[in-house]
Amino acid sequence: MRPLFLFSLLLATVVAATAVPRLARGDGDDGVCGATPPDKMALKLAPCASAAEDPGTAPSGGCCAAVRDIGMHQSTECLCAVLLSNTVKHSGVKPEVAITIPKRCNLANRPVGYKCGHYTLP
Prior knowledge:
Strand order of the largest sheet: 1-2
Number of strands: 2
Number of helices: 8
Radius of gyration: 19 Å
Distance between the termini: 62 Å
């Protein structure tokens, strides 16, 4: 009986030790955008297509709403992952232009200076 008890205690300790850091971050088994992968989350930024290709184009209201939603309801890390996702890259969007959209949307709570891959949010 004693070996079974010790094994159970060891197993419980290992499970707790690996789960606590994930729970403290609030993400459980999820990624930076929760249960939705950044590539799928990027589809929400479809209204930003023209603004992401041309820095001179003002982002639409729908684009700014999508960026605000991802940034506020997900996280800065999620927004960064979405802006640099394969979905965005394969759509022909220039990351150096896409990364400026939060500023061009005049988002007051944008994380100025946040390092996003090789880019810094303005």
